[in-house]
Amino acid sequence: MFKKLFMLFKIGRKLSTSGAISSIYEIYKPPLVIKILFFVIGFSFNGKRTNNDLSPGEKLCDALQGMGTTFIKLGQFLATRPDIIGENISKELEKLQDKLPAFESQNAKNIMREELGRESFDKITNISEPIAAASIAQVHFAKINVSGQNTNVAIKILRPNIEKIFNEELDALMLLAYIIQNLVKKTKRLKLVEIVQLLREITNVEMDLRFEAAAANEFYENTKNDIGFKVPKIYWNQTSKRVLCLEKVNGISIREVENLKSLNIDVKKLAKNIIQHF
Prior knowledge:
Blueprint: H1 2-18, H2 20-27, H3 32-40, H4 56-65, H5 69-78, H6 82-85, H7 87-93, H8 105-116, H9 118-121, E1 124-125, E2 132-133, E3 137-146, E4 149-158, H10 162-183, H11 192-206, H12 209-223, E5 243-247, H13 257-262, H14 267-277
Antiparallel strand pairs: 1-3, 2-3, 3-4, 4-5
């Protein structure tokens, strides 16, 4: 319990210095008892100045963005629940991105070696620097030896200790949700405890990359005879709970419209195909 309380205090400081709590106060008018609770656990210390030109929802979005994995995921989850936070705030939280600084490549290699074992790891060569980093994992390009031939792959690796960090912060948020629900009876309709628990269940599945690999493999089997689908192959010998190795597929983002047009791709036909395939 002491550890949870200490973590709750740390989260309180995060919320305060990021400006999240002041944004929440602009959106909702909490009872005095909640304000006192927030003050006691550190929510009102050293409040960060925020851009007054932004709406409360935009400020909250920026604050959560700067607080790391747990709060980005919480914000993304709440964006799907306008019944709880309202339509306007929901739309702002939809803008949450989960791009974070990458961790060192040597750490990534150590995780791969530990997860895959020496024999499978030794088949991986030319491991690149991180080419994309999100809140839970990052991606490297590499080559693996398959039946004597080098194959280009993309390797997704969970961040070090991410499961521990996430679950500890959620334990503290669970405690906070429980306290609020018991102090303010009106908040019971928001089902705060159930929200935190559901977020834990969803994200813990996301943190086991074998589920993602299995889903991709099933999608491949379901679409292998359909025109217009390309599902990357999963390399199971280089895949584990914390490492996902799959075929590297070159492509252009659908957002790069001018780039697509410069390659003489019919964007209207492309749009039609996307709808049809979906």
